[in-house]
Write a structure and sequence with these properties.
This is DUF6536 domain-containing protein. With 703 residues, the chain is α+β, with helices and mostly antiparallel strands. It has 17 helices and 16 strands. It starts with 10 loop residues before the first helix and ends with a strand. 42% of the residues are buried.
Length: 703
């Protein structure tokens, strides 16, 4: 049979042939076609999306910084009701986590493209008896790719660290609470009766209390106070530590209640101050050290309650320093994606399994001849073994000089990834669980140490009640550091996503490969390649390397987990307004920085993630790959071995025989092209063919 030499055709050569007439219009059209093809389009769109997100972040930083002042490293850009600020804060974190997940996904795809080897790099690896990964990122590839690509990969990895960690710390909420004076008075106080203050141990506060009580009496006459029934009044002031929309309160006692100071309409005046980490809500706040001692509501027959309503002044803040870090990472990712397009143009990588099959069909690999049954496991077992004779799988052989016995059998999807891939993902989840356990330990024993705890009750939000706990953070200088520490779990979630994506890509790469088996009960299928040739059977690859039915749900789940973590483990500032008459006086505002753990949601988030992994593994553990094809998957050596032309048949077999011209452009199956019984040696051969031939038979030899 005459030798038909087919050189490896790059897409650039085809473009040059298409250009023909070197006109500006043709060059522009060809360049457009090149950019919009497959992974090039994904990298191009990734550059565009990264630039768009960069503009959003930059404009946000410029507008907010120009409009609002920077105070203590933060900018308050919204003030209003606590419900509104909570909504703004939640929406901001949803947007942040969606954008960061999109950017992270594009970055991950960029790493996959850059780490995907070219045919030249594969030949170097095979010459050293090493195989490279096709279609999935793998550390082994980093030792054979160019330094330029390696540097860009490192930039993409390093710039991914701050994405969720810093970005989720950019926006945070400030909740306001009001100190108040609780005044207990007789019924004639309502009609303007005279009163005197009970003895007070703090003389400096006596004048302020007197002024507040006078104001309350006038407000009562003007009907400016809200009247509440005793139960509602008790719930408003005593069941919540955070008092957002109320201040001073006037309590009217029953006529039957007599006190020592019976000539005064005011029986007691108690000042309540918010002290994060010190006040135990289980203790009664209705205590005073003077003679008008009131230890609980039940001992004082309250008939009427008048509450002073105030506007809520909760805030949403931004930390510009953190947003600047995110913008820098944005710039790095935009530039890295652009550089990746330029660098990979000279030597297009084999990004998909179809790319590798096409390359090996057009130019068969010289290192893997006569090993058509060699699987990924075969090369894994022999590659690192230094025992004599154990590296024979890398020795090429004529097809008539030996073969391997096909044992058949179907492998489960769980066998596609390596043991190390499972070890890494399990280690990351254990680390996340450890963080959760540490938080629970701090909460459980915080009261006995230097960090007191405070139960904030149902006043926070649906996510932080009633099972949220927290502690006060010391000093403004340490707040930025605490913000980063709180968001460290985001980093773990990000790399859990990478690990899951890698496992999923490996399983799906094996699934795609096994789809060429005649045992799959499916018709012959075309190659999914990065640059499909027009008017052929070839298909374009998936947008982000894996099918949408897997990519979209996994991205949605990981985004939800990121948002859960940002909501239930965070720092919230508390601004406390003093009891002074003028509520707007800035000197009366004190700020506490508290770290809060929402226990139920935090473990719900962890449970959601762990449960998702368990369901994921259980689903795939019951699925099996079709038989009648070696388990090559992402292994370049195994794919190359399965793409060897048939030279069996005559007494003088031709070792340099090639595949028919244009075979890679047709629909293919991996089948037996020469049966063992048709050869003198009793050794058959299987490879890719456009014809419906035969399948492997157990117990027979193939090479």
């Amino acid at each position: 049979m005459p030798k038909q030499k087919l050189s490896l055709v790059s897409r650039n050569d085809e473009l040059e042939h298409q250009i023909g007439d070197d006109t500006a219009e043709n060059v522009k059209q060809s360049l457009k076609e090149w950019v919009l093809e497959a992974w090039k389009f994904t990298l191009t769109s990734g550059t565009f999306v990264a630039t768009l997100i960069l503009l959003i972040n930059a404009i946000t930083l410029i507008v907010i910084s120009a409009k609002y002042p920077l105070i203590d490293g933060k900018v308050t850009f919204f003030t209003g009701s606590c419900q509104t600020t909570s909504t703004v804060n939640t929406v901001a974190h949803v947007v942040i986590n969606v954008l960061s997940t999109i950017l992270f996904a594009y970055s991950n795809f960029g790493i996959q493209c850059l780490s995907s080897p070219s045919r030249k790099e594969i030949q170097v690896a095979h010459d050293r008896k090493k195989w490279l990964s096709i279609g999935t990122p793998n550390i082994r590839n980093l030792f054979f790719i160019s330094r330029e690509k390696l540097c860009i990969i490192l930039l993409l990895i390093v710039s991914s660290f701050p994405l969720h960690t810093f970005w989720n710390a950019v926006v945070f909420e400030t909740i306001t609470t009001n100190d108040y004076l609780a005044v207990v008075a007789t019924e004639n106080f309502i009609t303007g009766a005279d009163w005197t203050l009970p003895l007070h141990e703090h003389e400096s506060e006596e004048s302020m209390h007197r002024e507040i009580i006078t104001k309350l009496q006038k407000a009562l006459e003007m009907e400016e106070l809200e009247e509440l029934d005793p139960r509602s009044c008790y719930d408003a002031y005593n069941s919540e530590t955070i008092i957002k929309d109320r201040r001073n309160v006037l309590l009217i006692t029953d006529k039957s209640y007599q006190r020592v100071n019976s000539h005064s309409a005011v029986l007691a005046a108690h000042e309540h101050r918010f002290q994060p980490g010190i006040l135990d809500p289980g203790d009664s706040i209705w205590k005073d050290s003077n003679q008008a001692y009131i230890d609980s509501w039940t001992s004082v027959p309250i008939t009427q309650c008048y509450s002073e309503r105030v506007d809520e002044k909760c805030k949403v803040n931004m930390i510009p320093a953190f947003l600047i870090v995110v913008i820098v990472c944005n710039i790095i990712k935009s530039g890295a994606c652009l550089l990746a397009l330029v660098i990979t143009r000279a030597h297009p990588p084999l990004v998909t399994t179809g790319d590798a099959i096409q390359s090996f069909l057009e130019e068969p690999d010289k290192f893997t001849k006569g090993r058509c049954l060699a699987s990924k496991k075969s090369y894994d077992n022999f590659q690192s073994c230094i025992l004599p004779g154990r590296s024979q799988v890398w020795s090429s052989r004529l097809l008539n000089n030996g073969g391997d016995i096909w044992n058949g059998g179907r492998a489960s999807w769980l066998r596609a990834p390596s043991t190390w891939q499972y070890i890494i993902i399990i280690a990351l989840w254990l680390a996340m669980l450890g963080i959760g356990a540490l938080g629970a330990t701090i909460i459980a024993f915080g009261g006995s140490g230097n960090i007191p705890t405070t139960d904030l009750g149902v006043s926070w939000s649906s996510f932080a009640s009633p099972n949220s706990e927290g502690f006060n953070l010391p000093g403004k200088s340490r707040i930025l550091a605490f913000f980063l520490v709180v968001n460290l779990p985001q980093l773990g979630v990000s790399y859990i996503y990478l690990g899951l994506n890698n496992i999923m890509s490996t399983m799906l790469a094996m699934h795609e490969w096994c789809g060429y088996s005649p045992a799959s009960q499916k018709p012959a299928k075309s190659l999914r390649v990065s640059s499909p040739i027009p008017n052929t059977e070839q298909r374009a690859p998936y947008f982000l390397s894996i099918p949408y039915k897997w990519a979209i749900p996994s991205s949605v789940i990981i985004t939800a987990i990121h948002w859960f973590v940002s909501e239930v483990l965070n720092i919230i500032q508390i601004d406390t307004y003093g009891i002074g008459v003028n509520n707007s006086t800035s000197s009366q505002i004190t700020t506490a920085n508290c770290l809060f753990f929402g226990l139920k949601p935090f473990y719900s988030a962890l449970g959601l993630g762990c449960g998702g992994i368990i369901v994921f593994l259980l689903v795939f553990s019951f699925m099996k790959y079709p038989t009648a094809i070696p388990m090559a998957g992402c292994c370049s050596a195994s794919i190359a071995a399965a793409c060897q032309p048939c030279s069996i048949g005559g007494e003088d077999p031709d070792p340099n025989i090639e595949f028919p011209l244009g075979l890679a452009r047709r629909k293919l199956k991996w089948v037996v092209v020469k049966k063992p019984e048709e050869t003198r040696s009793g050794i058959g051969h299987a490879t890719f063919s456009a014809d419906d031939v035969a399948t492997l038979k157990e117990g027979q030899k193939y090479a």
